[in-house]
Amino acid sequence: MVPAGSLARDLRDLKGGVFLLNSRHSDSGMNLPRRALAEISGGCPFFARVIETGSQPGNLDRLASGEAGVTAVDCVTYAFWQQHRPGAAGRVRVLAQTPPSPAIPFVTSADTPLATVAILRAALRELVHNPRYAAACAGLRLKGIAELPASAYRGLLDYEREAAALDYPVLA
Length: 172
Hints:
Elements: E1 2-3, E2 18-21, H1 27-41, E3 49-52, H2 56-64, E4 70-71, H3 75-84, H4 86-89, E5 92-93, H5 114-129, H6 134-140, H7 154-165
Parallel strand pairs: 2-3, 2-4
Antiparallel strand pairs: 1-5
Helix pairs in contact: 1-7
């Protein structure tokens, strides 16, 4: 994502700019853009500055106000932000898409007991299948819940390894 008035036409045009990063642990905010930039970075820092902010919606707000040149957000966050910030949404635009990633997961602690995980999964299934919760699902834009195996997310680790192999192990 870039400001609407940005002259950038592709990722190469962003070299030397300021990147807003929600978290170094974010797939959509860090891992996927790192992989996309690894192809063109030549193993060198790409941005003049990378600022960790803690917030993808906040990053969009900062882009809209002209405080930075680029950020990466997941499509779900972007859709909600557009819906709730229509005036600001017209001041940013999509420049490029990152490599694909599975849907945003529902996450719990690795220490969550298996019985609790089963209860959480059952609650999510109930949420999307019970007509009583249709309004809540519509508001959350939930159309279904898919239980993906851990292997579905292993490709994200491949992106990390591929970026490192291209001498771009850190978004910089």
